[in-house]
Amino acid sequence: MALAIAMALAMALAMALAMALALAMAMAMALAMALAMALAMAMAMAMAMAMAMAMALALALALAMADLAPDHPPLAKRVCG
To answer: How do residues 23-78 score in pLDDT, each as one tens digit?
Structure first.
């Protein structure tokens, strides 16, 4: 009888341990997912900033070219067709 009780206790303990392990694994996975999401957001923000900078640079270049255009009629003709 005592053996059966001991076996049942051991089984319950093993189940509790397995559940705790599964919970820890789930928590670790959630943490990793949150970290990956934060990384992805940071990367997206960096890409958006880079795109905005590139657009600003292109706009500045276009404005500079427009400023230069009157001084150089052939260039203006070539750009405007």
So the answer is: 999 999 999 999 999 999 999 999 999 999 999 999 999 888 877 666 656 655 55
Calculate ∠ Cα 40-25-8, nearest 5°.
165
Q: Which two tokens stand for residue 44?
A: 């997206």
Cα separations in angstroms, 23 against 26, 31, 51:
5, 12, 41
What whole-number distance in Å separates Cα of residue 81 and Cα of residue 69?
13
Q: Provide the residue range defining the domain that includes 38.
A: 2-80
The domain tally of the chain equals 1
Alpha helices (H) along 1-81:
2-68, 73-80
CA–CA dist 20, 2 (Å, integer): 27
